[in-house]
């Protein structure tokens, strides 16, 4: 089935086997816009959970923080490192045929938005930083950053 000119995303909750929409009037409007007798496509899935503040904190404070402190990224800022890690750990390749020859293109993905995507990305970053650098960039347990156990104390 082809894509409709306009797609509507409706969110809600299932109660006693019935879909209860967050915005029922918008559902009615979208139903009327499809038109009587027209075919439609309905896809139902669990709402994706957004990445958490703890995940963002661990990525920026833990992973990016360790990178900034290492000698490997001298002169780089947090955005440079983030872009680099996205290219290294959240990209994919595709092969196109150009003049009869296969050509591989590396396409950079975007920064992950969902909890599951960010978890996967963080794990790839940790593995990459700990295995592809000499000396390795060691990322501590997230709780150590949360509790500031890796910070030095100023006794002055």
Biggest sheet character: 2 strands, antiparallel
**Total count of helical runs of at least 4 residues:** 5
**Uncertain regions: pLDDT < 50 for 5+ in a row?**
152-156
* Strand proportion: 15-25%
What's the number of structural domains? 2
Which whole number gives the mean pLDDT? 84
Strand order of the largest sheet: 1-2
3D architecture notes:
This protein is α+β, with helices and mostly antiparallel strands. It folds into two domains: 47 residues, no CATH class; 94 residues, no CATH class. It contains five helices and four strands. The strands form two sheets. Strands 1-2 form a two-stranded antiparallel ribbon. It has a two-stranded antiparallel sheet with strand order 3-4. A hairpin with a 2-residue loop joins β1 and β2. α3 packs across α4. It is flat and about 65 Å long. The N and C termini lie far apart (70 Å). The C terminus is likely disordered.
